[in-house]
Amino acid sequence: MASALTVGERRRQRLRERAIEFVLLAAAASSVFVTLSIVGVLIFESIGFFRSVPITEFLFGTVWTPLFANPRYGILPLLGGTLLSTVVALLFVAPIGLITAIYLSEFASPRTREIIKPILELLSGVPTVVYGFFALLFMTPFLQTFVPDLPGFNILSAGIVIGIMIIPYVASLSEDAMRAVPNNLRDGSLAMGATRLETAVKVVLPAATSGVAAAFILGISRAVGETMIVAIAAGQQPNLTIDPREPAATITAYIVQVALGDLPHGSLAYQTIFATGLALLLLTLVFNIAGFWLRHKFREVY
């Protein structure tokens, strides 16, 4: 009887384990299914768009006016605005994020790190619409004290505030990568007579290059996909320019502008949402592939 109960308990335990495995597999498969569904919708709707608009006009056209009486469908102004705001954000976040990561990893005491890091990560929890109004109502007037002819809507203030927004991503992930460097490298550098700053910059930082690069790639992807800040502060005017002082529109800002339910479903203007969304997806995919390549290229195994 005792042996039969033991067999029954083992059978029930195996059933419970298989049920748990099935639930975990379903959870993992659901994310893959949702991702493939989103990609499928973008491709399906974009096919209808490209049946009416040559892909060469879409990729190389310099005017984007799909809602005008004489529509033009060149995505370069939107792509230029997206990349320009990302470059401004990266130029702002690169020194601040890296210096913050070096300080937290190599110089801050454990007590200081416990206080500063959670406060820093709170920045990532602020709604992006708040950042957008911060850029419009504070950053732009502040910049106008140094650049008097700066218009009210411009890509410069939007890019700087995007940089402020992604500082927690870059600083926190870079700090984690630097703290993962074995202490024997630090001890060896200090034993050779190097200062703590020299050890941090010439030993720890190069050893954590793959993790730091991955942090920056993640920050770039976050900046490329940012919507509300550029929609509020950059002006939503498709403008092919390399001057960050001018207003411009990004791909995400355009999608927000037209996806308000006013366009007839299935119209060519409606399909531009999916064509630009597909372009944004491919752009983000390129950055992610670059990050994957950098991690493997500069990965150090200890």
Q: Any idea what the shape is?
A: globular
Helix fraction, binned, reads over 70%
Main sheet characteristics: none
Number of separate helices: 12
Distance between the first and last residues' Cα: 55 Å
- Which stretches of 5+ consecutive residues score pLDDT under 50? none
- Round the mean pLDDT to the nearest integer and report it: 87
H/E element sequence: HHHHHHHHHHHH
- How large, in whole angstroms, is the Cα Rg? 25 Å
Describe the 3D structure.
The protein is mainly α and 302 residues long. It contains twelve helices and no strands.
Please tag this protein with its features.
302 residues; mainly alpha; 12 helices; 75% helix
Strand-helix topology:
Layout: H1 2-52, H2 55-60, H3 76-107, H4 110-122, H5 128-144, H6 155-179, H7 183-191, H8 196-207, H9 209-224, H10 228-233, H11 251-258, H12 268-297
Can you give me a brief rundown of this structure?
The chain has 302 residues and is mainly alpha-helical. The chain contains 12 helices and no strands.
